[in-house]
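Running this now, will post back.
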Amino acid sequence: MIEQIFTYFTIETFYMWINLGVLPFWLLLIFFPQSYVSKFFVTSIFPLILLSGAYVFILYKSYLANYDFEVNFYLYLGLNELSRLFEDNLYIMMFWIHFISINLFAGGWIVKDSQKFGINKFFLAIPLVVTYLIGPIGLLIYWLVRIFYAKNINLYD
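Update: finished.
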């Protein structure tokens, strides 16, 4: 049975399932940010446990494929070394799961933080969509929206 799972979950299939798998979380964050379902499924540890499981699965597949994990540290040596790392599909999947997890965490934080200030969910849609696509810029947009609701600029909250 385990062997059937490994043959089904090729890197391309796994990439597709990861991308489709986070969409319901993001749709809940965008359309129903204050619902109980969003609170329970999205802004809790639940999606991070699922994405951590996916990351562990990729690490295990990498181990079985004799991936050299020491070369991951070469990314700090320069752009040429980083571009060499991106030639390997297993590394790309590690990076992609990392990227999606951090963006989803940031989206959950935006929703939780917006509830403290009573920010209307319609003003959250744009920062959440941008955070899904381009994480840091979405956080910046949310911070600008938050300034108007909080009536002050807080750089350390």
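The helical segments are 2-8, 11-31, 36-41, 46-64, 79-85, 89-117, 121-133, 135-150. More later if anyone needs it.
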